[in-house]
Write a structure and sequence with these properties.
Order of helices and strands: EHEHEHEHEHEHEHEHEHEEEEEEEHE
CATH superfamily of the largest domain: Alanine racemase
CATH class of the largest domain: Alpha Beta
Shape: elongated
Bound molecules: pyridoxal-5'-phosphate
Helix content: 25-40%
Number of helices: 10
CATH topology of the largest domain: TIM Barrel
Number of domains: 2
Structural class: alpha/beta
Radius of gyration: 23 Å
């Protein structure tokens, strides 16, 4: 098989989804499974649905179109505010979208009416992380406006925290969102069916709280795919962190001095790694570079250490491994690494189907 390749264990994706669906379901919270880090892979999406996800979310309409074409039966949400240039495709391929802009909502309304359909709208409110969302004071007026637009259905409200400034989705933030949901209902007379609390960074709150309030949905990607809590990058208990691995091939193995020699300046990607103890290393070079993966969050196999990465070479300390050229090593990836690997033309993706008896 070709290397480098991302190997996705679909049974593990299904299992991770199931664990989260069950735990959150006990608190009245549905899971919208986010497929963007898997580029809207139908096989990954299907595994998430088998695990009990109530719907699928992606930030790119191209990925939603891919899921649409695959014929998966599930609601699809665009979880980034639509590009106004893409509203037709959004209405065609998504049953709902997250929104913040009047001009986009007008365009969605026109597109939806033209296509003779109804598009569900979730209004995003800014609660301090300073990415998408209208300010809380502007939410009710915007909701009133949406209610009067033909072709649109005001489905609910939502927020997104943690992504831009690491602002924690805690009880006060979620209480504020619940309060805003109630304000919108009172002002519009519409019952909201979606109060979308956030992303994987909400899990700590959602699994720990005794009061989920009005929050009835989370949009989860990283936790399902990698089993990690984005706030700490630590494993979420009960989830598998090995659902996705990146396999690379060894192209050189040689015992080398641990320390470089000669006059030193900048390396290919900035400051070179600090000085290592004298001695020698069982050094390996893998055909894997920054064109394939972000070294951040790369987890080497047990007993192997990452020494550095440039565009096309990953240098490792193989420790006691008696690896030979041509051997393959499997690495865990972080979220950034997964994104890069999935979008690199040099990395193939292999989706390992679950074996059923
Ligand atoms: C990417 C994204 C998510 C999912 O985030 P994870 O950390 O992968 O769970 C949820 N909501 C929005 C708006 C996003 O952009």
């Amino acid at each position: 098989m070709t290397a480098p390749r991302v190997v996705v264990d679909l049974a593990a994706i299904e299992g991770n989804t199931r664990v989260l669906v069950d735990r959150l379901g006990a608190r009245g919270i549905r899971v919208t499974a986010v497929t963007k880090a898997a580029l809207g892979s139908p096989a990954v999406a299907a595994a998430m649905l088998r695990g009990g996800a109530a719907g699928l979310g992606d930030s790119r309409v191209e990925n939603l179109a891919r899921l649409d074409a695959a014929g998966l039966v599930a609601p699809r949400s665009l979880i980034r505010s639509p590009m106004i240039s893409q509203v037709d495709a959004v209405v065609r391929h998504a049953s709902a979208s997250l929104n913040t802009e009047i001009s986009v909502l007008k365009a969605l309304s026109l597109a939806s009416s033209r296509l003779g359909t109804t598009h569900a709208v979730v209004l995003m409110v800014e609660l301090g992380d300073l990415r998408e969302g209208v300010l809380p004071a502007d939410l009710v007026p915007l909701a009133r406006y949406v209610v009067d637009l033909p072709g649109l259905d005001l489905a609910g409200v939502g927020t997104n925290l943690a992504c831009q400034h690491g602002v924690v989705p805690d009880q006060p933030k979620m209480d504020e969102l619940s309060g805003l949901a109630s304000d919108v209902e009172s002002a519009t007379g519409e019952a909201l069916s979606v109060v979308s609390g956030g992303n994987s960074a909400n899990l700590g709150w959602a699994l720990g709280t005794t009061d989920p309030g009005r929050v009835d949905e989370l949009r989860l990607g990283e936790a399902i795919l990698l089993g990690l809590d984005p706030l700490t990058r630590l494993p979420v208990p009960g989830l598998r962190t090995d659902a996705i691995t990146l396999v690379a091939e060894l192209i050189e193995r040689r015992t080398k001095p641990a320390r470089p020699w000669g006059e030193r300046a900048q390396a290919a990607f900035g400051t070179p790694p600090g000085c290592r103890p004298a001695g020698s290393v069982n050094q390996g070079v893998l055909a894997l570079g920054r064109q394939d993966v972000d070294p951040d969050g790369l987890v080497p196999p047990h007993g192997v250490g990452v020494l550095g990465m440039s565009s096309d070479h990953l240098v490792v300390d193989l420790g006691d491994h008696e690896a030979v050229v041509g051997d393959e090593l499997a690495f865990g990836v972080g979220y950034g690494g997964l994104l890069r690997a999935m979008t690199s033309p040099f990395v193939t993706t292999v989706e390992r189907q679950p074996t059923r008896v």
